[in-house]
Write a structure and sequence with these properties.
Order of helices and strands: HHEEHHHHHHH
Number of helices: 9
Radius of gyration: 22 Å
Number of strands: 2
Number of domains: 1
Shape: elongated
Strand content: under 5%
Structural class: mainly alpha
Largest sheet: 2 strands, antiparallel
């Protein structure tokens, strides 16, 4: 048991060190999130934006800058978390592969990435919620933080998928930016006339957008939409696990005898005999 804990702790420490070395990501965390949500609040008109929220069935009329600040915060945390996990996976892929080929349990490597993702998502969600609370007070701040947390988890897992499958860094960055922008922008009723279109329910952050909007302007709790977002995270995490397993598979060539056969082949033949 202690050996497993040591392996997990060591892998997690290396993952966190890898994140800390990404200075650009750290700058995004410290400056981009409060700057982005602050600019949204100051530049978007505060006139009311009436719409019906699907998660609660209520007809709401929040200030436009407050409504857009919620989607802006979702956009910020998903981008930053996705970028952090993509960069760590993309740059540390060879190291992970060498560890796996040397016998380091892949289960512990995956658990370490999951732990660093949960920690990063929690910190970013709390930070973004605090930044919004400076300007105005959401009716359910804890639900808002939970919605941001679940969205960050989902895009962090997607970052692992992109980092494992894409060959160039610019491809991963473009994929993350475009996915997050399209995903969140289409759900903002202030900028998208089709925000209530049934197709938006298929978008990756639909559950978090609904929960975060309810958290900001309603007193009704919507745990079902957080659960929906966690389903998206589970699906993305499964894809990330498969991609990570594929990338860290043992790629050492099988030894070949002079007659062209493999030692495993003869061993298998003996077993059948």
């Amino acid at each position: 048991m202690r050996t497993h804990l040591n392996l997990f702790t060591t892998a997690t420490r290396y993952d966190l060190i890898e994140h800390a070395r990404n200075r650009f990501a750290m700058l995004l965390v410290v400056f981009f999130i409060p700057t982005w949500v602050g600019l949204v609040y100051l530049t978007i008109p505060d006139r009311t934006a009436p719409f019906q929220l699907a998660s609660t069935g209520e007809r709401l009329a929040p200030a436009g800058n407050e409504l857009t600040q919620i989607t802006g915060a979702l956009n910020a945390v998903t981008l930053v978390t996705g970028f952090m996990m993509f960069a760590a996976t993309f740059t540390g892929g060879r190291f992970d592969r060498r560890l796996a080929m040397a016998g380091y349990p892949r289960t512990h490597l995956v658990m370490a990435k999951a732990a660093s993702l949960v920690l990063a998502s929690a910190l970013l969600a709390a930070y973004a919620t605090a930044a919004m609370c400076i300007a105005w007070t959401p009716k359910q701040p804890y639900l808002l933080a939970a919605a941001l947390f679940c969205a960050a988890l989902t895009y962090g897992a997607m970052g692992v998928v992109f980092g494992s499958l894409l060959r160039r860094e610019v491809e991963g960055m473009f994929a993350l930016v475009m996915t997050s922008v399209i995903d969140v922008a289409l759900q903002n009723p202030l900028v998208s006339a089709g925000a209530d279109n049934p197709l938006t329910r298929l978008l990756p952050t639909y559950g978090s957008v609904q929960a975060a909007t309810a958290a900001g302007f309603s007193t009704i709790s919507v745990p079902a939409y957080l659960a929906l977002q966690l389903l998206w995270f589970a699906a993305a995490a499964l894809l990330g696990l498969l991609a990570f397993h594929h990338r860290t598979r043992n790629a050492l060539p099988r030894p070949v005898r002079h007659d062209g056969s493999h030692p495993q082949d003869s061993a298998t033949t003996k077993e059948h005999a």
